[in-house]
Design a protein that fits this description.
The protein is of the alpha/beta class and about 260 residues long. The chain has seven helices and seven strands, in the order ααββαββαβαβααβ. The longest helix is centred in the C-terminal third of the chain and has 24 residues.
């Protein structure tokens, strides 16, 4: 039997996730729309946040904002501020001019100054999620909301700084311990969506291999990606099963 790799010291992705682009131009918006069709994770997040942010009011703080792609979903009644870690460019490829980049937990945000906190696919990259959520809670006014998404059926990415996969019960415990109540956790997708997501990833993984035969076979499979993407997008209308792409969670800062 061939020896299996010890992954403890792994330090790079076989296929690095492409960075998002801002919605600054019509071309950018078209790129992001295509990305959401082909990237079922991104598309499922957009669907949920379009609903969750539609009635946002007051000050919204987007922590780990990346390219600020969800900023455009806010109504005029909400003000937006994006912050991210100082090493976001080196780790994830993001360097957006009006983002405040912070070091450690010095976010530069006053306590009880925000009405909504937004984290999209951030918590899995935080070594101490309980401490992170406690820090986030201090930014919220009593009764303020947190809206967050986390992956579940997603490959290990941005290696090695991808630490966790959370279940609904795990998210509930973390949020309760950090001072939140009215916790609501919803699945994004279902087992069929997950199967499509994995099938779509296979050709991309094959193209990234050094073996020319494997790369060529991966290229031949690419036309099937659009078909599987369409099935995956349609499948998200059904809520069933215990497997999913990820979760969208909301909670209230305890009064």
């Amino acid at each position: 039997m061939a020896a299996r790799r010890n992954l403890v010291n792994a330090n790079r992705d076989m296929f690095k996730p492409p960075t998002f682009v801002s919605n600054a131009t019509a071309l950018n918006r078209l790129q992001n729309k295509l990305r959401r069709f082909l990237d079922l994770q991104a598309g499922s997040i957009w669907r949920d946040l379009r609903h969750e942010l539609a009635t946002a009011r007051g000050n919204l703080l987007d922590v780990g904002c990346g390219a600020q792609v969800y900023r455009c979903l806010l109504p005029p009644a909400a003000s937006y501020r994006g912050i991210d870690a100082a090493d976001a460019k080196g780790r994830f490829g993001y360097d957006v001019p009006d983002t405040h980049y912070f070091v450690a937990d010095e976010w530069g945000v006053a306590d009880a100054s925000c009405d909504i906190l937004l984290f999209t696919e951030v918590l899995e990259h935080i070594a101490d999620p309980a401490a992170f959520l406690a820090r986030a809670r201090r930014c919220l006014r009593p009764g303020g909301r947190v809206v967050m998404t986390v992956p579940f059926a997603a490959r290990w990415h941005y290696i090695p700084e991808d630490y966790w996969r959370f279940t609904p019960s795990g998210l509930a415990r973390l949020l309760d311990g950090a001072g939140f109540d009215q916790v609501d956790v919803r699945a994004r997708g279902n087992p069929l969506t997950v199967a499509c997501y994995k099938l779509m990833a296979l050709p991309l993984m094959m193209i990234g291999q050094s073996n020319l035969l494997v790369r060529g076979l991966g290229g031949l499979l690419l036309p099937l990606v659009a078909v599987v993407a369409a099935i995956g997008n349609i499948s998200m209308v059904w809520d069933w099963g215990d497997d999913c792409l990820g979760y969208t969670a909301t909670a209230r800062a305890k009064l």
